[in-house]
């Protein structure tokens, strides 16, 4: 950034607010005075010359640095200060909603382009944090998987997620959770994230009020959250399928899916009904049908078993009502389906239901598509973290829940691996290292099968991590990709046709 005086920085920052419609020209003096107080300046000097800087994050850095110099507690409350500062140039919710739906009249993608661009500009989508993530790809027989070592946002332990679902609502502070509408403009505190610059576009799905926001720590392009106005637990049912297709009618350029509604196989937040959407070609979307199937009650509908490590039925039709009805039928029958030879039990003796579905929907021209991923969250003495969950020998790489994003072939791996894999690489090329013991068995296997050099070790370790993720998905599949498993899948199809 070219060296600017603090007054030039302020003028450039305010100009961003004018250009994105946050303020009108008549509001400039007012906003400037509010900003001067926020960063600790008692006077104002009109800059002698105009120097243009349009990078909102660089301007934010300068303003926050100056505020810290003036004794503001920026470092101790950095997230809250950043959000509150960017709120100066973030349009009010009413303005954003008006502009969004006005642009929507021209085309849905113009509306989402506007909202996403703004979310990045005001640091609601934290592009810097996201850029820290380590990304690579891995080729498998199922296609090219995408691997992310997540350095922007910590992953939750599956048992912590399950415990959170059981907490009493009255014990949770305001807002009730991080997906509630009440987060819009919330300063932060009491363990809740800073959301001063957070905005939500209101929309309808079916007969309910919902909101569209962008994920602060996006894992893929235009990663958005579609959240229910009401704070109520996630539930996969017929209304879920209605809502997914209702969203696609309004935003056909996006995909949309829902995490499963049970612990272990669900996402990190089960207490608030929500979906995830966005504009990204996930690996699962690119794979083909392995075996076509017929559903007797839906003879005109295209259906098949996907060539994927998890157990997925793909349904396609020009009639969304047909897909809703078929999806509901499959969900209800899966909820009561048992195959003891494959350790598939729909309910345990305590009456708890263990089967659900992770649904993902698309619109392709005039046709709709839905992918139904069969999930089972049973545990056993051998697999206390989940029978259809990453098995213990894979936990050194991935122990966390396999949610919607990972089901589709995009791994979200824990941040500890950034440093741990560096030590693994040193071990493999016989350099001094501090490799964690949890990786020892895996590394011994790698070393016995391959030769590692300083030139190839990073590439080969990443390939090995990709192979682990492929195995993670296979562990999460209820009908395994082998003869016994595929025969079991066909028995389930026969059960659907009874």
UniProtKB/TrEMBL annotation:
Belongs to the galactose-1-phosphate uridylyltransferase type 2 family. It is an enzyme of class 2 (transferase). The keyword Heme does not apply. InterPro entries: GalP_uridyl_Trfase_II, GalP_uridyl_Trfase_II_CS, GalP_Utransf_C, GalP_Utransf_N. Keywords: Carbohydrate metabolism, Cytoplasm, Galactose metabolism, Nucleotidyltransferase, Transferase. It catalyses: alpha-D-galactose 1-phosphate + UDP-alpha-D-glucose = alpha-D-glucose 1-phosphate + UDP-alpha-D-galactose. Pathway: Carbohydrate metabolism; galactose metabolism. It comes from Lactococcus nasutitermitis. Coiled coil: none annotated. Residues 249-442 form the Galactose-1-phosphate uridyl transferase C-terminal domain. It is found in: Cytoplasm. GO terms for molecular function: UDP-glucose:hexose-1-phosphate uridylyltransferase activity. This is Galactose-1-phosphate uridylyltransferase. Its EC number is 2.7.7.12. Residues 22-233 form the Galactose-1-phosphate uridyl transferase N-terminal domain. PANTHER family: DUF4922 DOMAIN-CONTAINING PROTEIN (PTHR39191:SF1), GALACTOSE-1-PHOSPHATE URIDYLYLTRANSFERASE (PTHR39191).
